[in-house]
Amino acid sequence: MDLVGSGRVGPDLRVGTAISIFIDGLRVRARLGESVLTAMRSDPGHVRNFEFMDEARAGFCLMGACQDCWLWREDGERLRACTSLVDAGMRLLTRSPEAPR
Description:
The N and C termini lie far apart (41 Å). The protein has one domain (18-93): Ubiquitin-like (UB roll), CATH 3.10.20.740. The protein is globular and about 35 Å long. The model is unreliable at 1-9 (pLDDT under 50). The chain is 7% helix and 26% strand. With 101 residues, it is mainly β. It has one helix at residues 36-42; strands at 18-23, 26-31, 48-49, 56-57, 70-73, 78-80, 91-93. The longest helix has 7 residues, at 36-42. It has a five-stranded mixed beta sheet with strand order 2-1-7-5-6, covered by helices on one side. Strands 3-4 form a two-stranded antiparallel ribbon. The protein is built from one helix and seven strands.
């Protein structure tokens, strides 16, 4: 595929190689160079569930301002799905590792 120079995914990143990431232990298909939010909207269809109701959340502002797409790496590090790029094999959680299940 062509190099992407829009700045959205980095000037020297090849987009398109199929990879897998894991969300709450489930395999999600992704493409190298896309955001975590894009991968999650394409495969499971949403980012997380609302904390207070059984409502799917899908990100809101798509630029890192609204705080609606926070996820956690399995090591507890937080990241925003809309501004973070996928890495092959990355493992993410939709709830804080410290949160009661």
